[in-house]
Amino acid sequence: MDAIADDTRTFFIDLCRRYRTNHEFLEGIYHILFGNRELGFPGTKTAQRRQLTNFAPLVPHMIMAKPDVVDGAIPQGRQPQMMDDLEDLIIPFVISEDDGNKEDENMMVAPNFFFYNRLEDKDGSAGSRAALHCGALGARAMHEIQCYGRAKSYDKMAYTYVAVLMTNHMTIYAIHPIESQAPNRETDYQMTQIKAFQFGKLDEFKSGIAAFRNLREHARSVRRRLFVNLERNSDDTSDDSNDSGGNGGGYKNNSNSDDQETSSSDSIGDSEDSENSTGQGTSASNQRESDPPRESSPPTKRVKIRLWPKP
Q1: Residue 197, strand partner residues
Q2: Rounded CA separation 309/204 (Å)
Q3: Polar residues bias: where (predicted)?
Q4: Rounded-to-5 percentages of helix, strand, coil across the chain
Q5: Residues 144-153: pLDDT tens digits?
Q6: Which burial class, exposed, middle or buried, applies to 72 when counting CB atoms under 10 A from its CB (0-12, 13-18, 19+)?
Q7: pLDDT (tens digit, 9 = 90+) per residue, 129-177?
Q8: Pairing verdict, β 169-179 and 160-165
Q9: Nearest in space to 106 (alpha carbons), one of 142, 139, 74
Q10: Which 8-state DSSP code applies to residue 60?
Q11: Residue 79 to residue 19: CA distance in whole angstroms
């Protein structure tokens, strides 16, 4: 981050403004934000501007999410039975009917990092709604893998993250599943704002870029640990019903955390259940008849994550 000067900040803001009339400036924006032009990331499958067409909707007739950038795991070597059982919950893109779950260059699994470019939107709330939609789909995917073959549990950790870019600021969020209080639903999803970075000052601009890149790297580490734990649990099933599946590497939704700079949150759930959260609720359903009975989750270790340098 030391190489980023104030000229870079003003140039970035200028590119964001020019993008509204000329989308060719997007390459320069991404180069500064991601640190490279191709957006590639080791051990990660990245896709741009693809609808998540293979995901089952959170509620009937819900529009398909379409993030500007999404990171997920490379499917090679993943458990084939799990891929079949959870196909429409963990694989975001359409799979050919002829090839079934045949692995191809466009396939990814367990997407848990999403980026939205909202440079053309004047309504900032549109970005947060898109973040909640995509984030809930990603959180559902991670939770389904985490609990695969075992009773559902909730460790109150976030393993899914979304960044929303506006012209003069960027906001990053964490999304995690919560046990629904509604009798007709099993799971709801809550989104917590980690921090909003204003680009008016160089230090905060640099902190925002650092947080974005670090969060992307952290999301990759979370995916890796998730599959390591899955393989470990498949080798030893005797303690599955007593293991929450949490690996201690997620973002803890705790307002006392030093790294949670804000406390605002939204939840995907029924509005009558929003008394237990600090945000507005919208209706969603994640009930599956095939799910086993839920068990209470054991206590999990709280882990703090420092995404950007302290001032």
Answers
A1: 170
A2: 10
A3: 278-287
A4: 35, 20, 50
A5: 999 998 899 9
A6: buried
A7: 999 999 999 999 999 999 998 899 999 999 999 999 999 999 999 999 9
A8: antiparallel
A9: 74
A10: T
A11: 42
